[in-house]
Specification:
The complex is a heterodimer of chains A (193) and B (515).
Chain A (H helix, E strand, L loop, with lengths): L1 H46 L15 E4 L5 E3 L7 E7 L4 H20 L1 E8 L3 H10 L8 E4 L3 H6 L6 E5 L5 E6 L4 H11 L1
Chain B lengths: L19 H10 L1 H17 L15 H18 L9 H30 L7 H5 L3 E6 L2 H13 L3 E5 L2 E6 L6 H18 L6 E9 L3 E3 L7 E12 L6 H4 L2 H7 L3 E16 L5 E12 L4 E3 L2 E8 L4 E11 L5 E8 L6 E3 L4 E8 L2 E4 L2 E4 L8 E7 L5 E7 L2 E4 L5 E11 L1 E9 L2 H20 L3 E8 L3 E8 L3 H14 L6 E2 L9 H7 L3
Antiparallel strand pairs in B: 1-23, 1-24, 2-3, 3-22, 4-21, 5-6, 6-7, 7-8, 9-10, 10-21, 11-12, 11-20, 13-14, 14-17, 15-16, 17-18, 18-19, 22-23
Classes of the chains: A alpha/beta (193), B alpha+beta (515).
């Protein structure tokens, strides 16, 4: 009898020991893999944050004054349905070509509840004013002067023209690089709603 | 021969795995898996050096375009697989995490059985155990001889234990812990490497700052601002500098040789925000950064890394000369970033009608190539006292004006600004990496220079003794140390069994692994 109980005790001890060991094994593996997962999540988050605003990001806020000095706009306080945020320069030919197209359709956009803001990338008001006057078309939409290139930097602009489609919540739905045609403009406006 | 690695103790992972936890554990406990992981990391790191990493490519192009444009299809593949950011790519970090886990599991799996086996080792070992050792000798011997031999071993700094007629002498057991110490060091090192992912521990950004400009530092989360007060580029000047004259010959061959790149800086701390959104800044420090001599504040270092070879124009000054009377009006200064449009010079008034910062002629029309003031041209109209208006297009080596014009615009001076590329860095992981590295080295040295040595003796029958020796490193050295003592005390001389049966333990090595 004593022999049997002894071996039974040992069995129990061994079982308990084993359970404890399994627990620690699981703990160690979970901790290391969890730490690894945190690092990788951080990496993935940073990969999306390379200083360039892309689809899916929140549109950075900014305050800019228009070329004629009459209006000041702020991204956060904009209360329309959708917003097309365009960046352009007088030295960029496709920008020049798309401007009359945007002007032709601006009334339609406004009826849809979509505004079109054209941010000039760090040029002087003098140059932009001359450029707009030489265009031959009167522009109704706001030309915003980013004289210190701060907004340009915040959005990480490489190529011009570029148009960000921003919804009412301030999320970037799409980033379109290239000249806007009427079809493209309408497509982007639809997406912003 | 017995497998003496881990003293013949069962490796934990080699006991029959039962649950999935044990199976995963066994996977990471395998040295084969560990070696594969190391191999993959080495291959990955090597591939990562074929093309430059993203942080070293020019900034004008996004990486997605750069690698394809520069290196073609291999470049595209390189970019797609994330080799352009190798050390922060998810799969590289995954490999490092798996290796870290492998190191921890392997160490636990081996350390505890070995520790227990060595701690509780008996002085008297079985006949089979002793005959299983590499160094084994058998022959005549007495208790007195064993005692005397034990004393001789003590003199050699062995720890000698007796159990009746059996003897165990041991030294440098701690050398066996070398690999585990080394693994701890590596794990700490990897933890340090992984901490670099978090901006709180490691930041590294390049800021382009034009002279006179103040920029927020992204690395400090816009808490600090830097102003570029002046960029200095000095060349070796053998003609005017006696010190430099000794290099005259070399400089002649090489052309102009830069001597110093330096940026003088002012550091500001943001204390609040003004109503118009601009930051309120408080000056904290001034200083300069030269190549290899960073400007330091808090945990940050600012390195002089690049500069723009084409300085930008900040302003240009002009005079207006009356060709008839020789009178000169002015000078007046045009600020290129925010120009006035009218300049009243008394009798004459200059109207700035247009300004092309980077002048070119396109389709017969004056135009600008970029918004940067690299090659400015000015379209000016001068209101003369006669009531007429004269037009001038003025630029660098450019002056288009009507010959009949009475007034001529002349350059009076320029103010230019260079742009410095400053690398702002912080790295709080160095202490972790250094500690990890030191522990790693200590582990290596422990394992390399202190071989664990053990000698067993036991009586066999009335007149005979059995002698066995073990070392985890360099058996011939143990042989050289002990054989003369055996001879001196008249004990049987041992022999190296491995000499005659080579490579018997190869299989067991693979199975049990090495650490």
């Amino acid at each position: 009898m004593t022999k049997e109980t002894k071996s039974g005790d040992r069995m129990n001890q061994a079982m308990a020991h084993k359970k404890k060991r399994s627990f620690w094994r699981l703990m160690i593996m979970t901790m290391v893999l969890f730490a690894g997962a945190v690092v990788i999540m951080q990496l993935i988050e940073q990969a999306g944050n390379d200083g360039r605003v892309e689809a899916g990001d929140d549109a950075p806020n900014f305050k800019l004054v228009s070329l004629d000095g009459t209006t000041m706009v702020e991204r956060e306080t904009y209360d329309g349905k959708g917003l097309l945020l365009n960046f352009w320069g007088t030295f960029c030919e496709p920008c020049e070509k798309e401007m009359p197209v945007v002007q032709d359709n601006y009334a339609t956009l406004q009826n849809m509840g979509v505004d079109f803001w054209a941010v000039n990338v760090g040029e002087t008001p003098l140059r932009v004013d001359n450029f707009v006057n030489d265009l031959g078309v009167k522009l109704d939409y706001p030309i915003l002067m980013d004289t210190r290139s701060e907004v340009e930097k915040a959005y990480g602009i490489y190529n011009l023209p570029v148009t960000f489609v921003i919804d009412a919540d301030g999320k970037v739905i799409e980033k379109y690089e290239g000249e806007l045609t009427k079809e493209k403009l309408m497509e982007l406006a639809e997406k912003s709603l | 021969m017995l497998d003496m690695k881990y003293d013949g103790a069962d490796l934990r992972s080699k006991r029959r795995p039962r649950s999935w936890i044990d199976r995963v554990w066994s996977f990471f406990a395998s040295v084969k898996v560990g070696l594969w992981l190391i191999g993959l990391i080495i291959v990955g790191s090597a591939v990562g050096t074929i093309f430059p990493q993203e942080m070293y490519i020019p900034q004008q192009l996004p990486a997605s375009q750069y690698y394809t444009d520069e290196y073609g299809t291999p470049g595209t593949i390189y970019y797609t697989l994330g080799f352009h950011n190798l050390y922060t790519s998810w799969w590289y970090i995954t490999l490092i995490v798996m290796l870290t886990l492998s190191l921890i599991v392997v160490s636990i799996d081996r350390f505890f059985p070995l520790y227990k086996a060595l701690k509780n080792q008996p002085v008297r070992r079985t006949d089979r155990f002793m005959r299983g050792q590499r160094l084994i000798g058998e022959g005549k011997g007495s208790d007195e001889q064993i005692d005397a031999f034990g004393d001789a071993l003590k003199a050699k700094r062995y720890q000698v234990k007796r159990d009746g007629d059996a003897l165990l002498a041991e030294k440098f057991r701690f050398g066996r812990w070398g690999p585990y110490v080394n693994h701890i060091g590596l794990v700490i090192f990897f933890i340090g490497a992984m901490l670099r992912v978090f901006p709180a521990f490691h930041t590294d950004t390049l800021e382009w700052v034009r002279e006179g400009d103040t920029v927020p530092l992204e690395a400090t989360d816009d808490e600090y601002y830097l102003r570029n007060d002046q960029f200095i580029l000095e060349m070796y000047d053998p003609e005017n500098n006696a010190e430099d004259a000794k290099f005259a010959e070399a400089i002649e061959k090489a052309g102009a040789v830069p001597k110093n790149y330096e940026t003088e800086l002012t550091l500001f701390k943001k204390t609040g925000t003004n109503e118009d959104g601009s930051p309120q800044l408080e000056e904290v420090d001034t200083g300069s950064t030269k190549v290899n001599h960073p400007f330091k504040f808090e945990k940050y270092e600012v390195y002089q890394e690049q500069y723009s070879s084409r300085p930008e124009f900040l302003s240009m000054s002009f005079n207006v000369a009356d060709k008839e009377t020789g009178d000169v009006y002015g000078p007046f200064t045009v600020d290129l970033t925010n120009p006035e449009t009218t300049y009243d010079l008394g009798d004459v008034t200059v109207n700035l009608n247009d300004l092309y910062p980077d002048f070119e002629v396109k389709d017969g029309q004056p135009n600008t190539k970029s918004p940067r003031a690299l090659n400015p041209a000015f379209f000016m109209a001068i209101d003369t006292p006669d009531g007429t208006t004269e037009s001038n297009l003025i630029g660098i080596r450019l002056n288009v004006a009507d010959e009949e014009n009475r007034y001529a615009v002349q350059f009076a001076g320029t103010e230019m600004a260079s742009t410095s590329g400053l690398r702002v860095k912080s790295d709080s992981t160095y202490p972790v990496l250094i500690v990890g590295g030191i522990i790693f080295m200590v582990g290596i040295v422990m394992g390399m220079y202190w071989p664990h040595r053990r000698i067993w003796i036991r009586r066999q029958g009335e007149t005979d003794v059995l002698i066995a020796g073990f070392t985890n490193k360099n058996p011939s050295s143990l042989n050289r140390e002990i054989t003369p003592l055996l001879e001196k005390h008249g004990l049987p001389i041992w022999e190296d069994q491995a000499r005659f049966e080579k490579k018997t333990d190869d299989n067991s090595t693979n199975e049990r692994g090495e650490s």
